[in-house]
Structure formats: C-alpha cells, structure tokens
Amino acid sequence: MNKSHTFNRQRWKMLLLTMFCYLFFYTGRHNFGWAAKQLAATLQISYEKVGWISFAMLIGYAAGQLINGNLADRLSPKHMIATGGLLSVGANILISFSNSFITILVLWTLNGYFQSMAWAAGSRIISNWWGDKRSRGLAFGFYTMAAGTSSIITYLFSIMLVHEGWRNLFRIPVLFLAGAVVIFFFLVRNKPSDIGLPDHTGNNEGIALDWRHSYQTVLSNKRFLVVCLSLGFQSMARYGLIFWVPLFFQSSSANAQWGLWITLLLPTGMAIGAFSFGFISDQLFKSDRIKSITLGMSCCAVVSLILYLLPVRQPLLVGVLVFCAGFFSYGPQANFWPLSPELLGHAYVGTGTGVMNMCAYAFAALGEPLMGKLIDLTASKSIIFITVAGIALLSAVTILLTNQVNARAATPQPTAI
Predict the structure, then answer these.
(1) Residue 199 per-residue DSSP state
(2) Is there a smaller number of Cβ atoms within 10 Å at the N or the C end of the chain?
(3) Each residue of 28-83: pLDDT tens digit?
C-alpha cells in the first residue's frame, strides 16, 4: 500500500472520528430550548429571564472560543476536546438537580466555556489532515454537517423526553456525549506525523507561534473581520430558530398533535444544508465562499418571512418551510470556516476559528434575551420568524462587503518563538 493511499485513508478516518465525537456535543447545549417552557414554570420566571440563561451560556462559549482557539494551535486538540466534553457532561447533570435561577445561570455559563473547547480544536485536526484548498471545503462541510446532525439527535432525544420532565433533558442525552468523547480520545490522532506520515507543508506550517502575534495578525486582517461580522448575524439567526422554534410549536394548540415532530425537520435541514453547502461552494461557485454564503442567507430571510406570514394550519407546507429554514440558516456556516485558513494562513487556523466562533456566539447571545423580551411584549411566538428574517438579511449584505475591503497583509508571516 503506497503512502498516498495510506494518507488518504487515514485522513478520512480522522475526519469521521472528529465528526462522530461532535455528533453528540449538542446534546449538552441544544437541549436547553426544549426545557425552556417547563423551566420557566418551575422557577416562575419570564421568558426574558430564560433568554438570559441562554445568553450566559453563549457568552461563556464566545469567551471560551477566544481563548481556546489559540490554545488549539499550541496544545493537543484531542485532549482539549475530551476535557471539554466530559466537563460539559458534569455541568448538565448538576443542572438537572438544581432549583435555583442563579445556580442554573452559573452552571450554564460554565457549560458554555466547556463546550467551546471542541470546535476550534476539531477544526485544527481537520486542517492538519486536509491541507488542500480544493478539498478543504468538502471536509469542513462534513464537519459542519456533523454539528447539524448533532442537533437532530438532540431534538430526537428531547421530543422523546420532554414529557418526562425537564430534568431528564439534562441527564440522559449527555451520556452519549461521554461515550463518544472516550472513543474519540483513544482513536484519533492530531496530525499525520503522529502515525509516521508527513505533515501538511502548506503556508506557515511547522512554526511555533507567539500568541500575541497570532491575535495581532488575525485582528488586523480587515477582510477576516468583515467575515466575522457576517458570521455573527448568521449565528444569531440560527440560534433564534434552534432555541425558540421548539417553544413556538410547544405553545401552539393548533398543531399540538404534529408540531413537536415538525421541529425535527429544522435540524435535519441544518445537517443537510451544511453538507450541501460544502459542495455548493466548491463545485457550483468554484470555492467562492462569499457568493455561496450570500445565496444561503438571502434564502433564509425569504423562508423566515414566509413562515411569519403563513398561518400554521398546513402541516406539509409548514414542514417544508421549517426544513428550508434550517437548510439555509445553517448551511452557509460550512462556508465560513474554510475562510479562516484561506484568509489567514494554515498556522492561524485555531486562533482564527476561535475569533470567528467568539463573534458568532457573542451575537447569538445578544439575540436570546432580545427574542425572549419580544415574545413577552407581543405575546406572540411567531415574532421569532420575522426577527430571524431581518437578521439573516443583515448577514447576506455584510458578507458582500468582504471583497470591498483590503486585508492589512495578504499573506501573514508568523513570528517564531
């Protein structure tokens, strides 16, 4: 067996292992939206306060991304993922025994940080094994698809458990995360040289980086910062759907019989969208991520507007639209992550991904209490969709500005330490 064939087989193995692990990560954070209605009743708090709990987790996640993205460039990615996953399991289980708003707020914030230890580290592993730009979009599309599929798994568990009480939503699904993390830890390898294969020798490879210079390089790239802003709006729209759509269908008496199962079409659309947009950017738009993102977020805005205007009495049509909302709200995210190595260079993948994800979740965090407040003020859950439509449109418009600004440095040069 020649080295080329061995390398190709191993890089697919590492991609699939990383995907498998992340497949269960959302069981530790996307379960919260399903607990929102019962949690508000148990703690006797408003939906705005529920939104603040979600805000706290997302802020913890955003802050963690800023730190852990850089650490993923310097430490062992697989150790970071395993540690974060197991700590997240512990935080979820502790929440299931809590009865205090403050206690849950603190634990959910910590959980956000623990969860943040995985994504950039996984991106680092994938970038180590998939250095070719022509195939990188496909690899990150698969990786993002795993995250979308993780939402499907979490929604499926939640639909089955929601009538058993909100505490079980925090206890049972995360056990699968614990198992996946252990399997991942023992089988994955951070980079090809760990098993005697040559490492990718692309731009900036193999240089130990000064962390200050890493952040300086990333934050001085103007095109990259515009991408981060667009991703922020994309993430705000996505979380506006993923967190509040379960509440919308749980609260509507008109669709009580079929509404819960329709929600499953949202993460299904997200997973398929992530996979599809990897192909869309690489094949249809010849690796032009900007055009692909613009298309997806524009379509998300249109679909969300239709959902707002449409009476929720037609299960088939509503189901198709919910699927499309998931497809177009999340699919473009697969096109954002390859922009980190493409705009910054291979050596800055972890730091760049961390900064991107920090922006994404900071924006998503701001959207949660805002959405809760709008629901409290209007007493209408459908306000979710018109709000998401506006935010998605902002993402589409912002990403178009990327080609209108110049990066401070075309090819960043790392500083060795």
Answers:
(1) P
(2) N
(3) 998 888 888 888 888 888 878 888 898 899 889 888 877 887 787 788 999 999 99
Burial class of 186 by CB neighbour count within 10 A (0 to 12, 13 to 18, 19+) = exposed
Contact (CB, 8 A) for 190 and 128: yes
Q: What are phi and psi of 13, to 5 degrees?
A: -60, -45
Q: Which residues contact 121 (CB under 8 A, 6 or more apart)?
A: 68, 72, 77, 78, 80, 81, 84, 350
- Tell me, what's the pLDDT at 414? 43
Q: Are 292 and 281 in contact (CB under 8 A)?
A: yes
Question: pLDDT by residue (tens digit) across 199-241?
Answer: 765 544 444 456 677 778 888 888 899 999 999 999 999 988 9
Cα dihedral 230/236/237/240 (nearest 10): 180
C-alpha distances in angstroms, 393 versus 14, 60, 306, 413, 414? Answer: 36, 27, 14, 35, 36
Distance CA 74, CA 211 (A): 9
Closest CA to 25 of 208, 230, 179, 191: 179
Measured in degrees and rounded to the nearest 5, phi and psi for residue 257 equal -75, -35
Percentages of the chain per state (helix, strand, coil), in multiples of 5: 80, 0, 20
* pLDDT of residue 313 exceeding 70: no
Residue 133 has pLDDT above 90, yes or no: no
Strand, coil or helix: 245 = helix
Token pair 């709000």 in the structure block, residue: 387
Residue 414: Cβ-neighbour burial (10 angstroms; 0-12, 13-18, 19+) = buried
Would you say 92 and 174 are in contact if contact means Cβ atoms under 8 Å apart?
yes
Q: pTM above the 0.85 mark?
A: no
3-state secondary structure of 157: helix
What Å distances lie between residue 377 and 189, 215, 316, CA to CA? 51, 41, 30
Q: Which residues pair with 66 in a beta bridge?
A: none
